[in-house]
């Protein structure tokens, strides 16, 4: 089955977007892994498939990790999809449905997009954790990297606050903490350096995807956890490897707003049936 795709990115966090609103795409775990593979397929941090919108949303966005698992939320992907749907409908306000809830999105005059990711969930069972613990201080440590805070932004996040992220072995520490027994659903792991109350340097190891250039929900979780620790203002610039996101934890209703870019890299066609031979070669 030959279908079209759009390659997009938000601050370097890249996605392959497939439109399945008119017909099912037949995405299997193997096909997802192949499409996300940067040598055998198109290559991306996450594969995004679009489905018809549900009550209250213009489109439903399903988020697939490169290992074939499904993510609950992705702020950068939401901005990209909001840009596509906004252009399609010629509207500046759209609502993107996800398995974690509906995400109202606004396309700004400068092309950036603001997404309302709702209120963070702070209870231990909301993250979730494997046992009842104070989510502001988790008993996790490896050397000086210790004492993270956790919350859910539609998916589980833990944030370590460190003196500097430069030189930190994120590719070793990330998977070690992602799969810790404390996280029954695994977790996204952030390593944050507070530069000032309104500027935070951040690197994120995403569950099922690895180290990415930017993680929107991770940036939101980092600001929430930093505010809870008394380390940051309620609005700050999050400096990630691929660019800068503006995050605000609104006091009035507790919602977290994320503003950042959404860019189209290229469009193309791909034969989904070709995945079988590629998978065979990879094996």
Task: Give a structural overview.
This protein folds into two domains: 2-117 and 262-282, Roll (Diaminopimelate Epimerase, Chain A, domain 1), CATH 3.10.310.10; 141-254, Diaminopimelate Epimerase, Chain A, domain 1 (Roll). 19% of the residues lie in helices and 39% in strands. The chain contains five helices and 19 strands. It has a 17-stranded mixed sheet that branches. A two-stranded antiparallel ribbon has the order 9-10. It is globular and about 50 Å long. 44% of the residues are buried.
Sum this structure up briefly.
By secondary structure, the chain is α+β, with helices and mostly antiparallel strands. It is 19% helix and 39% strand. It has a 17-stranded mixed β-sheet that branches. Strands 9-10 form a two-stranded antiparallel sheet.
Strand and helix layout:
Elements: E1 2-10, E2 13-19, H1 29-36, E3 46-52, E4 59-64, E5 70-71, H2 75-89, E6 93-98, E7 101-107, E8 113-116, E9 141-142, E10 145-146, E11 149-152, E12 156-161, H3 170-178, E13 188-196, E14 199-206, E15 210-212, H4 216-228, E16 235-240, E17 243-249, E18 256-260, E19 263-271, H5 275-282
Parallel strand pairs: 2-3, 4-6, 12-13, 14-16
Antiparallel strand pairs: 1-2, 1-19, 3-4, 4-5, 6-7, 7-8, 8-18, 9-10, 11-12, 13-14, 14-15, 16-17, 17-18
């Amino acid at each position: 089955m030959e279908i079209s795709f759009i390659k997009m990115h938000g601050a370097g966090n890249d996605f392959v977007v497939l439109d399945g609103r008119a017909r099912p795409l037949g995405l299997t775990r193997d096909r997802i892994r192949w499409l996300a593979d940067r040598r055998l397929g198109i290559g991306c941090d996450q594969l995004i498939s679009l489905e018809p919108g549900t009550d209250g949303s213009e489109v439903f966005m399903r988020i697939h990790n490169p290992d074939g698992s499904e993510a609950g939320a992705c702020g950068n992907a939401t901005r990209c999809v909001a840009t596509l749907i906004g252009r399609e409908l010629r509207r500046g306000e759209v609502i993107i449905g996800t398995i974690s809830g509906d995400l109202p999105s606004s396309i700004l005059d400068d092309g950036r997009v603001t997404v309302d990711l709702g209120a963070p969930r702070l209870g231990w069972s909301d993250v979730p954790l494997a046992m009842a613990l104070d989510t502001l201080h988790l008993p996790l440590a490896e050397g000086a990297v210790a004492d993270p805070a956790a919350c859910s932004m539609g998916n589980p996040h833990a944030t370590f606050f460190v003196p500097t992220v430069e030189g930190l072995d994120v590719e070793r520490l990330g998977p070690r903490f992602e799969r810790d027994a404390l996280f029954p659903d695994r977790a996204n792991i952030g390593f944050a350096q507070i530069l000032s109350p309104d500027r935070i340097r951040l690197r994120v190891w995403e569950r099922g995807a690895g180290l990415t250039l930017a993680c929107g929900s991770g940036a939101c979780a980092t600001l929430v956890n930093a505010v809870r620790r008394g380390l940051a203002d309620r609005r700050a610039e999050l400096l990630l490897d691929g660019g800068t996101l503006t995050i605000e934890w609104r006091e009035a209703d507790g919602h977290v707003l994320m503003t950042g870019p959404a860019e189209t890299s290229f469009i193309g066609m791909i034969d989904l049936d070709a995945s079988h031979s590629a998978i065979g070669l990879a094996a």
